[in-house]
Amino acid sequence: MWKLEVAAAVTGVDYHATFEVPVFETEESSENFRVTEEPGVERVVLELDKKLEQAGIRVELLPAGKRLVFPRARVLGPAIGLTVFFGVWTAIVYGLHASDAPRFFAWMFGFFDVLLLLGVVDLWLYHGFIEARPGELRFASGLLFMGAPRKLMSGEVEKLEAKRGTQSGNKLYYQLVVHERGGKRHTVAKRLPDLETTERVIENLESIFRG
Question: Is 55 found in the same domain as 136?
Answer without folding.
Answer: yes
